[in-house]
Amino acid sequence: MNDTFDVWYRDPHEVVKNMLANADYKDEMDYAPFREFSSEGDEQQWQDFMSGSWAWSQADELANDPNTHGATFVPIVLGSDKTTVSVGTGNNEYYPLYVSFGNIRNNVRRAHRDAVSVTAFLAIPKTTKEHANDSSFRKFRRQLFHSSLAKILSTFKPWMTKPEIVRFGNGYHRRVIYGLGPYIADYEEQALLSCIVRGWCPKCLSPRNDLDADSLCRCREHTEALLEQATLQELWSEYGIVGDLVPFTNNFPCADIHELLSPDILHQLIKGAFKDHLVNWVERYLKHVHSAAEASRILDDIDRRWDSRLQSYDVYELFSNRIAAVAPCAGLRRFPQGRGFKQWTGDDSKALMKVYLPAIEGYVPADIVQAFRAFLDFCYLVRRDVITEHTVTQIQDALERFHHYRTIFSTLGVVLTFSLPRQHSMVHYLFLIRLFGAPNGLCSSITEAKHIKAVKEPWRRSSRFKALGQMLLTNQRLDKLSAARADFRRRGMLDGTCLSEANGAGHDNLNLPDGDGNENEGVRGHDVQPEENNEDIEVDNGPTSVLAHVELAKTPQYKRARTINELAVELSIPQLPILLHQFLFRQLYPDDERDPDEIPPNILRPQ
What is the pLDDT of residues 219-242, one digit of tens each? Predict the structure, then answer.
């Protein structure tokens, strides 16, 4: 157990500053917390993160301090989730840490517009089977996670109490105060982050065997008070606290990990309460009240495969081919092979939610159907982009109906307890909506969708040997390319095409006579209507668009040019450096009347 574990990361402070300076986000950001009210009924509504009460309370604290009064509050949104990159027989596991900021609006964070970026790859300690269950190793593994986060995020700490001048995408500079914001994670990681025992709730003090009991919320102050009074064993058994761990949030001001854990629609509701609980309970119910053969026949009938043999079935059987026989419809996914496949994705579960309720009707009691209906109402309500006070009332009603009708599973002997952390998390959604805004802006589906671009594709481009550093470098370069593109777009450099620009530049400064015999100086070629006697002026009427595509090499090309001078030799363009300097001079100093061709090279080069 003397191994060394590497944590690869880049400065998240610089990553966030680059995001804030991105011109693409200038109209997609909220620079101050706000409270939003609907035009109809004048009721409060929640959408983006800054409309929540947490950002409002943080801004109030900044306003009370003369040193931070008037500063822009920038919450740091974090997310982490293990993922596996497997090719053939390989099984490579990685632990990316993602960073974003709360001022960006939810639709941008969900839209893969580089508002979420990978900033680190955390270590995944492994040991021999002999020590895998050793308490010392488990403690080391958990504390390494928290210590790594504290070190990675330490560059934010000086600017959490003292304003930093930061340039934003709209060109203005603002005084900024950073603060740790919501953390996106599934339940397993929430338990690790909040230093609690698995099976307990990371948000409240409800006992493990009765999670739905009324109780107080967990908080940093209460936990620290318990650490001073209780033993480690008492903390573990009575409060569900792992007392010998130090959360990373203890290193930062105004940070309470229990408060910062965000709702997770994907793992708590869709994959958890729906697929792992309710769908499984229906199967257990059928096996409980029917013989094994009859239960299997009913399950097959629910998701029977759609094939040519359907034409021999009677009307009832045609109706009973429930899931597989869903008619094609926009927005509705078909399961031609039923639901009997091994690995489910979030999209699979979302699609199944739309067709599962009518598929089980007639095979289960009415209360089970009502429980599914109430649960689906809850899910679709909390997934809305905008949640109003009326929606909150509907969510509360759906939750109460679900708790009422789900007791049928206990009455029938299918379920022994409802103290399940992921299902219990539903009771916290109303509070978290008011705290952080609409939950779909802080869902783990955002980080999971980022795995492809941030982990899997960079891994394929790497040499596969000590790939972590190469993967992080690839992400850094992709972010730089994205930032450069945004800057070029802001400068108007991407308007039109290369060919149209070349055509226009080729006819600059033409002195052509007009109808009165005068000369038109500086008229661009494409603005001039050629006379019949101007035979030496050629007009290109062909297409002016150039199809171009840039794709990173799958593996590093070590033998290619890596500097401008080397590239000039490789392309056989010896004047490439001076041409590049002239181009940059025109872009950086568009108002300079000097001709770059007449400026000495030593002046053109940036100092």
Answer: 999 999 999 999 999 999 999 999
Distance of CA 399 to CAs 205, 321, 355, Å?
20, 31, 21
For the purposes of burial, counting CB atoms within 10 Å of the CB of 412, is it exposed (0-12), middle (13-18) or buried (19 or more)? middle
Cross-strand partners of 241? 196
**What are the structure tokens assigned to 544, written together?**
């002016």
Tokens of 68: 């931070």
Q: What is the pLDDT of residues 430-482, one digit of tens each?
A: 999 999 999 999 999 999 888 988 898 888 888 888 888 888 889 888 888 88
Q: Identify the three-state secondary structure at position 154.
A: helix
Residue 207 one-letter amino acid: P
Q: In degrees to the nearest 10, what's the CA dihedral of 579, 580, 581, 582?
A: 50
- Strand 173-184 with 72-80, pairing: parallel
Strand partners, 36: 45
Q: Measure the CA–CA gap between 419 and 402, rounded to whole angstroms.
A: 14
Phi and psi dihedrals of 296, rounded to 5? -65, -40
Q: Phi, psi (5° rounding) for residue 117? A: -135, 145
Backbone torsion region of residue 135, taken as left when φ is above 0, otherwise alpha when ψ lies between -120 and 50, otherwise beta:
alpha
Q: Which long-range contacts (CB under 8 A, 24 or more apart) does 310-316 make?
A: none
Give buried/exposed letters for 579-607 (b at 16+ CB in 10 A, else e).
eebbeebeeeeeeeeeebeeeeeeeeeee
- Domain limits of the chain? 8-185+257-262+443-486, 277-308+319-436, 561-606
Write out the DSSP string of 270-300: IIIIIIIIIIHHHHHHHHHHS-HHHHHHHHH
The DSSP 8-state label assigned to residue 369 in this structure reads H
